[in-house]
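Hi X.,

You mentioned you wanted examples for the new student's onboarding notes, showing what a folding record looks like when two proteins sit in one file. Here is a clean example. The first protein comes first, with its sequence line followed by its structure tokens.
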Amino acid sequence: MNDASRQKSVRLKPDTVKSLHIFSEILKKSPDQIVEEALESYFDRVQKNLMEKNMMDENAQTNLSYDEFWEGVDI
């Protein structure tokens, strides 16, 4: 099975397609270019949010209070 046969089609609402074509004319960019730029921006934002969430999750698991950190330690 090649990549082309595994691809799923993407369907957009008619209003979205209409807006895409309007902005394509205004910006003098192809609809494909607008979609690519929008998706790149979206993916960057989602990746940043996921990394921040991961950092918060890691911090939540590793942040110990002073007493918890030193509990059971003999000096």
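Then the second protein repeats the pattern, sequence line and then tokens:
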Amino acid sequence: MDGKRKSFVAPLALAVVLFLAGLILGFYIWGVDGGDHVDYKQTLRETIDYIATIEHRNENLRERVAALETEAAMAREQRAEGAEQRADEIELLKQQIQTLRKENQELRSNLQPLTQQQDTGGAGPAPQQDRPGG
């Protein structure tokens, strides 16, 4: 029996030594809880406060984003109105240019007989002038 007992004691002693080494190493790494109990109510209050702060900031950000979106929409609208107004002004200027070109053409056609008459020395029919009242 001595042989069986020695073969049984050696692994048992090894297991006890490893257990004690693990226990000592565990206390060394993680330390002994010095009695500091976690105040779960306080931790929960802090968590609630933190969540409330995040929600408040989120609401502020939403308001700012909404304001910025409104400003952007107004800017787009003003830009579109400005483009439309510029298009109207361009169209008006084109009409004025067309009117001035017609007037210029009429003046040139009225001026051409006068220059021909001057070049020929006054011979030829006198140009007709519009007279007020008849």
